[in-house]
Specification:
The complex is a heterodimer of chains A (413) and B (346).
Chain A (H helix, E strand, L loop, with lengths): L12 E10 L2 E2 L1 H10 L5 E2 L12 E2 L15 H6 L2 H17 L9 E4 L5 H13 L7 H8 L1 H12 L5 E4 L5 H14 L5 E8 L3 H9 L23 E9 H6 L6 E10 L12 H14 L8 E3 L6 H15 L7 E3 L2 H4 L6 H15 L1 E2 L15 E2 L4 E2 L4 E8 L3 E9 L4
Parallel strand pairs in A: 5-6, 5-7, 10-11, 10-15, 11-13
Antiparallel strand pairs in A: 1-2, 1-8, 1-9, 3-4, 7-8, 9-16, 12-14, 15-16
Helix pairs in contact in A: 3-6, 4-5, 7-13, 10-11
Chain B lengths: L12 E10 L2 E2 L1 H10 L6 E3 L9 E4 L21 H14 L2 H6 L5 E7 L4 H13 L16 H10 L5 E5 L4 H15 L4 E8 L3 H8 L7 E2 L1 E8 L5 E6 L3 E2 L6 H11 L6 E5 L5 H10 L7 E3 H5 L4 H16 L4 E7 L4 E9 L1
Parallel strand pairs in B: 4-8, 5-6, 5-7, 12-13, 12-14
Antiparallel strand pairs in B: 1-2, 1-9, 1-10, 3-4, 7-9, 10-15, 11-15, 14-15
């Protein structure tokens, strides 16, 4: 039963599998190498017409022609849209690494902003251009919905859910991992498959372009002269489980998810409060849940979109949250490398933190030239090798959705 | 407000308010009256671009009279119908507690559940993009985002607590109810409002017509206001979410919901059937031997997707407030899950 549930002892939550696909490539290895160096992966958009847009580039993913083996049949494989493929590719790597077997009642918690929007757009174009033609339309209707992609994921690996899809705009991925953490932490499940995904779509690209939120030059988070964000696409999937479960089966532990916080910014639909009040609340709540103080956090993967308003509010929030220790924390934004992945951003960026904790480096933001003087913290512009214990990942979204995750290096205890 | 989680999700949960917007009108009053009368709300035509000689058919929410005061809020000035429905139903469910939320005396969790979501503005914005992206409206785009309605509700209430928008088929509303119970039990919120909402659009009606030509879509919202302190109605159970996936058919999923719900002779069954044999097949089979009273909200109000699952729950709670001892909700969704809930008199 989803309710009521018997009270359970509080559990520690660890990551035993991780998979990722971004414009840097497919898999942990290539992405870790790219993030470590601060590589960038932007190119002209080829997925749809951008000839009349202000901005014509994004971090578009090259999807492999062949998908890895799964339990999906040929008919299901043929129906997969771009977003589903991104999700399945990331999930395959995570599940293979974790060694999870098919299982009933394994919760799936995903974050996305637009599901299979590309199919929805195709449906609309045909519905308008040839109103009496229904060819392929039923498939587009059923497969553009986010629950269809989640069900394909469940079928691909032999899991039976329940499926929860959080759509809190650009905080969705962070909220999804946070909710998965909560399910294990409170003993409601010993394992959860979680992550975020989003594919580039014409509607969303045009939306950010018309808001003049896209940078016509280069995405430069926390630069004094920043002029906007860059869009990207991708997915990251984590297999989360209780520490007891991981130890019992002798699984390799990649990191610990030690805290999660969420808060709502009621200031404006698309603009954060200038002082980042909800971001402060979210960061504090996550630290509280993790039982760590600000001075224990060595690295922050900022939401850092590169828009003037986001970065100034987030800088103010970090300065306040750090409570006098801002100069001791390193901050960067990996959106300069792969763009803003919207519903996938929080998941991919949490995974970047896991990579950095595990391999002992911090990812730089190389495009930033002149650091905004509002940054009271150390902004990382060059690669840095550094062992550290705690990372914090921020994700903020339209509608005032704020989510923060705390990741801890796994050192065997 | 900082909250440290505790691990007591089995805490009893009570319903402290209900709200509804439906083709019957604005408020639980006209909603309950329509259900008592039992007559199908008359459908009306909805124009579809490209069709000159026919139209789609939907059940519409009538214009509010009087116009709700909250619509004068600057935040809601450019919003589409779904935001209006979400805010109205949530405020109705919250009642006097809305002011306490605004004053910071109650830390409110907000959960809004949708299937189609903000389709009016998504369709409109994409149409503008196809015509000429240089003139596509920056005022419309932010309203296309799934969590726009929940954001507007939070802003209107000045609520800074945890706030999720869940996307999925109609059963997602009951997942939202279970999530709210979890937040209350874990201490993440003092109170939670759970809303299921949709808005009519020719695009959605056109799409559903591909699967059932007799299905009549409708729109609106339903809301439950949940707290831990006792009231007349208790949330007794939310079943597991039984997915339509792998080897599990819709019928198997519906039967597993039935197995998990306690039933007695005095229980009212609020089901999801629409009197469309093919669509209702699994749910009818799962409840074929049911001899108790039955209320089929969708037959009267139409297929409101996430809103309809919320209406079923509002109807169940309303029945208990009118003297019933128990009411079960059965939702066999469109393409994701079967799930159920049970409410009892406290």
């Amino acid at each position: 039963m989803l309710f009521p549930r018997q009270p359970q002892a509080q559990q520690r939550v660890v990551v035993t599998g991780a998979g990722v696909i971004t414009a840097l490539g497919l898999g942990w290895k290539v992405n870790a190498a790219g993030f470590r160096e601060g590589a960038t992966a932007f190119r002209p958009v080829t997925l749809f017409d951008v000839s009349r847009q202000r901005v014509k580039t994004a971090a578009e993913v090259t999807i492999p022609a062949e998908l890895p083996p799964s339990k999906l049949n040929a008919h299901q494989l043929k129906r997969l849209d771009r977003a589903s493929k991104l999700l399945l590719l990331a999930a395959h790597e995570a599940c293979r690494q974790s060694g999870w077997e098919p299982r009933e009642q394994l919760p799936i918690v995903l974050g996305t902003t637009s599901g299979g929007m590309g199919l929805g757009e195709a449906y609309y174009r045909q519905a308008i251009n040839t109103p009496n033609s229904h060819r392929d339309q039923a498939h587009r209707v059923s497969h553009y919905q986010a629950q269809r992609q989640a069900l394909d994921l469940a079928d691909a690996f032999g899991f039976t859910g329940p499926v929860t899809i959080v759509s809190n705009a650009c905080a969705s991925g962070g909220n999804a991992i946070g909710h998965a953490w909560h399910l294990i932490r409170t003993g409601q499940s010993d394992r959860v498959l979680t992550g975020g995904y989003d594919a580039l779509s014409q509607l969303v690209f045009s939306g950010f372009d018309c808001l003049q939120a896209l940078s016509p030059t280069q995405c430069r988070p926390f630069d004094a002269h920043r002029d906007g964000l860059a869009l990207g696409e991708g997915a990251a999937v984590l297999t989360l489980e209780s520490l007891d479960s991981a130890k019992q089966r002798g699984a390799e532990i990649l990191a610990e998810v030690s805290g999660y916080g969420a808060a709502t910014d009621a200031h404006h639909l698309t603009q954060p409060h200038p002082q980042g009040t909800a971001a402060i609340a979210s960061m504090r709540a996550a630290c509280h849940a993790a039982d760590v103080s600000a001075e224990q956090i060595s690295y922050i993967n900022a939401h850092g979109t590169g828009t003037p308003l986001n970065d100034s509010a987030e800088a103010a929030a970090i300065n306040t949250w750090a409570n006098g220790h801002a100069r001791e924390v390193f901050v960067s934004s990996t959106k300069a490398s792969i763009g803003h992945l919207l519903g996938a951003a929080g998941a991919v960026e949490a995974l970047v933190c896991i990579m950095a904790l595990r391999e002992g480096w911090m990812p730089p933001t190389r495009s930033t030239q002149t650091v905004d003087p509002a940054c009271g913290f150390q902004f990382l512009r060059s690669p840095m090798d550094q062992q550290f214990d705690y990372a914090l990942s921020n994700s903020f979204g339209f509608g005032g959705a704020n989510a923060t995750l705390i990741l801890r290096r796994w050192s065997g205890a | 407000m900082e909250r440290r989680m505790t691990t007591n999700p089995a805490t009893s949960i009570f319903v402290h308010g209900i709200g509804a917007v439906s083709p019957a009108g604005w408020g639980v009053g006209p909603f309950a009256a329509a259900l008592n009368e039992g007559k199908e709300i008359a459908p009306s035509p909805l124009a579809r671009p490209g069709w000159n000689d026919r139209s789609l058919t939907v059940r519409r929410v009538p214009a509010p009279s009087p116009r709700p005061a909250f619509l004068a809020s600057p935040r809601l000035r450019r919003t589409s119908a779904i935001s209006h429905y979400v805010v109205f139903s949530a405020l109705e469910a919250l009642g006097a507690d809305a002011e306490k939320v605004s004053a910071g005396q109650i830390n409110l969790g907000v959960i809004v559940c949708v299937m189609s979501g903000c389709v009016n503005y998504s369709r409109r914005f994409y149409d503008e993009t196809l015509r000429d992206p240089t003139t596509a409206s920056p005022l419309v785009f932010p309203e296309t985002v799934f969590n726009a309605p929940s954001s507007h509700l939070a802003a209107l209430l000045n609520s800074t607590g945890i706030n999720y928008t869940l996307v999925g088929d109609p059963g997602t509303f009951l997942q939202g109810v279970a999530l709210a119970a979890d937040w209350l039990g874990s201490g993440l919120a003092d109170a939670c409002v759970v809303v299921g909402a949709e808005e009519n659009d020719w695009l959605t009606a056109d799409a559903f017509r591909l699967f059932s030509k007799r299905m009549v879509l409708s729109d609106g919202a339903g809301a439950l206001y949940l707290r831990r302190d006792p009231s007349r109605t208790q949330l007794e159970a939310v079943t597991d979410s039984h997915l339509f996936s792998g080897a599990q058919t819709r019928l198997m999923a519906a039967r597993r919901v039935r197995e998990q719900l306690t039933c007695s002779d005095t229980t009212l069954l609020c089901d999801a059937v629409q009197y469309l044999p093919k669509v209702d097949e699994a749910e009818n089979a799962a409840w074929a031997d049911w001899r108790g009273d039955r209320l089929s909200v969708k037959r009267i109000l139409g297929e409101g997707l996430a809103a309809a699952a919320a209406w079923q729950s509002v109807a169940a709670v309303n029945a208990i407030q009118q003297g019933r001892t128990a009411a079960n909700v059965s939702v066999v969704g469109t393409n994701q899950q079967a799930i159920g809930a049970r409410f009892v008199a406290a």
